[in-house]
TrEMBL record:
Organism, as annotated: Drosophila mojavensis (Fruit fly)
Source species, domain of life: Eukaryota
A GO term from the CC aspect: mitochondrial outer membrane
Protein name: Microsomal glutathione S-transferase 1
Transmembrane intervals: 16-36, 78-95, 101-121, 128-149
GO MF: glutathione transferase activity
Key words of the record: Acetylation, Endoplasmic reticulum, Membrane, Mitochondrion, Mitochondrion outer membrane, Transferase, Transmembrane, Transmembrane helix
Cellular localization per UniProt: Endoplasmic reticulum membrane; Mitochondrion outer membrane
Enzyme class: transferase
Pfam families xref list: MAPEG
Length: 150
């Protein structure tokens, strides 16, 4: 392993850094989207957040819960990408393949949120976007395992 792989002069690491940054911003935006849904539907989970004595604590608004599920799905899928993408960079992969894998994960996670929590689109849109990122991340994981095992 060479630390030269972890510099912005390495196009693979530069691409990983870019897409990791995009996905961090995307995940932060999910918190804002959740808050927007809470205010729009007047659905608050804590008594101190209630904007009026007429409101009640509520945990079951479908719009809020849809955004929360999309956010949780991000946590379950983007966080492993951060770890495995960095390790994959250290295997010195083909720049073309690695850059396109990072793009596939980034774009498909953005599409997943759009079709799940912003403009609800019927299946298989969500499943396709989910599996593109999952397969790309799994491929990188297997490549990291193979590089470390031999």
């Amino acid at each position: 392993m060479s630390l030269e792989l972890l510099t912005l002069s390495n196009p693979v690491f530069k691409s990983f850094t870019f897409w990791a940054g995009v996905l961090v911003v995307k995940m932060l935006a999910m918190s804002l989207l959740t808050a927007m849904q809470r205010f729009k539907t007047k659905t608050f989970a804590n008594p101190e957040d209630l904007m009026s004595p007429k409101l009640k604590v509520k945990f079951d608004d479908p719009n809020v819960e849809r955004v929360r599920r999309a956010h949780r799905n991000d946590l379950e899928n983007i966080l492993p990408f951060f770890a495995i993408g960095l390790l994959y960079t250290l295997t010195n992969p083909s720049a073309f393949l690695a850059i396109n894998l990072f793009r596939a994960v980034g774009i498909s996670r953005i599409v997943h949120t759009l079709v799940y929590a912003v403009v609800v689109v019927p299946q298989p849109a969500r499943a396709l976007s989910f599996f593109v990122a999952l397969i790309a991340t799994a491929y990188m994981a297997f490549q990291v395992i193979a590089a470390a095992a031999f």
